[in-house]
Protein 1
Amino acid sequence: MQLTGAEIIIECLKEQGVDTVFGYPGGAILNVYDELYKHSDEIRHILTSHEQGASHAADGYARSTGKVGVCFATSGPGATNLVTGIATAYMDSVPMVAITCNVGVSLLGKDSFQEIDITGVTMPITKHNFIVKDVKSLADTIRRAFTIAKKGRPGPVLVDVPKDVTANKTEYEKVIAESVNECRNECSEQDIDAVVHYIKKAKRPYIFVGGGAVISEASEQLRDFVSLVQAPVCDSLMGKGAFDGTDPLYTGMLGMHGTKTSNFGVSESDLLIVIGARFSDRVIGNASKFAKKGENCSDRYRSGRNQ
């Protein structure tokens, strides 16, 4: 069936199971808002007082629900106001799709009223971004944006759509949303055997949990693992909630904002078991002195496999 670009955007959001959108309207995105209003019984729109509030709200929604957060903004200052929220989602690996609208295709690159190269602006703080200049590629682009936002290490994706693309028509066919296995990597028996070997050998193991354990919903498996190893557990700010903070084995956060127990414990451990963390500078401080008494199993194991 023939649909406008604005209609296709809303239909694609429905395909992806989106039930809530945060945003602030403006001239370039009015076609999309007109269509969104027609589907207000299926997709709830939360009007924020500022576009930055929309991106932060989409970020918070994604963190609390596990779904992809979605936000809307118009061209120019509307789009640039999303930047801080997008950057937050990027830094903390939060799935988000930001949909902005821009000036017409014929006006791009001509310093038009409220024209901003928002894809250029957000390139360093998104997993990927798109500008859709042909309505025929709009549906596939939005679907791809959601897949990228969810796949592997989650993060934000921006889709910029010129206003005339939202008005143009093309054929649309509904597609079932792609199922994405988030954060699942296969481990060989050799990998597992090596880990077990080092855990059995360790006399003072410590477990450090990061946001990856939250994203992959591995709390139950983490609890079982800790019960088997019987090692103390610390976490990063993003890892909070993955392990029970009232458990006797929990010692608090690690790093400059962490507890004395966790920092001294990791410093004295002979094996640091890291689950879903990226060793940020807030955690490790001086890298040459971090967990210095621990055996560097990863380097030894990699060198052994390469022989």
Protein 2
Amino acid sequence: MSLSKPSPAPIWMLAASLILALLAGCATVQTSGTPAARSRNEAIVQADVLAHQAATQGGAERAQTEKQIESLLAALDDATLQREAAALPAGNPLYNYAGRALLRRGLPLPRPFERTAWKFDAGNRPPAESDGYRPPMKLAVLLPLSGSLATAAAPVRDGFLTGYYGETRRRPEVNFYDTSTGAIAAYDRAVAEGNDFLVGPLGRDEVGALFNRGTLPVPVLALNRAQVQPPAGNASFSLSPEDEGIGAAEFLLDRGARRVFVVSSEDETQRRAVNALRERLAERGGSVTDVVSEGVADFAPFAAKEGGIDAIFLATRGSVARQLMPRLALAGLAGKPRVATSQLLSGTGKAEDDRVLDGIAFPSESWNTRGVRGLPSPSSAAAMLPNAKGPAARLFAFGFDAWLITAYLERLATSADGISGATGVLRIDGFGNVQRTPGWSTFSNGIAVPLADAARR
């Protein structure tokens, strides 16, 4: 459906308004107050109807409806999305979707999300501090402290405790529970022992199993994202490769790039980022011209295709990207804008070798390039903790932010503002998912710097 054409059938518009009224349980139709009558945008009218339908659905049916809503909203330009989101009345289920679309683009919310199911007084917490600090009274952290996943959990734990001990105000009692023998059992034990808030578990399947229980007696901040949305009053936080792919697509689209050539490794995480990039580009009128393996020797045939290439997306490690640069130059692609995943930092660290990566934009943790209040510099932390350097540093920052979200959950849930964390600016969407706006960095003279600072080096 073209967004530039007016609706050819006013009867259809009236039908949409009547559907909305029926789905909302209204006995009368107030045409002047409905989004369908107020908005002249066909995509918003259709998304509004679908959002009301999604509220009555579940499982795969709801997931499919929500995908349609996201596609409709993704096709809107920033100004239209902002205007239409602000015009939605209180209680309209489309606001949660529109607000999430705004957050993913790094745009401000016109008003906070509605949080009727969220409770913040469990355990008789004292009132919030002036900055919104209001941690739980007794806190459980669910992590795999033994077994094969313990290595991944260790930097998360250390980052969490760094934030915890760096706070000088009231801190909750913290208890750690090992999920290596079962996350559900660990959750039940933590609840039985009187904890009023839980952080974890870490595995995607574990989070899905917990969320599939429906209403949870004690709320959680899950440390991964499952296929099912968090139950009302709960939240999830992850370093999702899908979010990186969406962020890269938005970054390129904002700069006018519509046709993107992708070079990717065979790693599952990178494939997930590429798939998310492809979907978001398609939703907003762009496309991926080709996805080729990092092992391809000659990129010239792909560069010569009709329509050309506007930009390049690199879903590879930095050590591999260094080898790709000469091949891209030989294909005539050296001058194209280049964006990468955060994995670009892997295998780097020597300026004399990394100069070939100069100019590539990639999402990065704020901690690495700008510093974060309450957290020592990356070099200082690395000198004190092995789990705060190298590839583990990202998980360390993730753990630190898990503490921040826990301590400032009420502020995040009830305001339109975010907080500055180690992994980026953190906000919670209307479905309980933490949306992270990362900082963007690049290499300049072989050194990773904030993108805005590159021109000054």
Protein 3
Amino acid sequence: MLGVTVEPFNPRIESNVDVAVDSGDVTGPSAGLAWTLAIIDVLTPGVLDR
């Protein structure tokens, strides 16, 4: 038997970097994945192409 507990979670990270994302009308899991990959691409060396 496997039990799963879902609890509200609100992580906070203190940083000197300001991030603002305006996705307009684009929402949903696939949009979140696209945004995440774009951010990782900008923050890491090299190119995310494969």
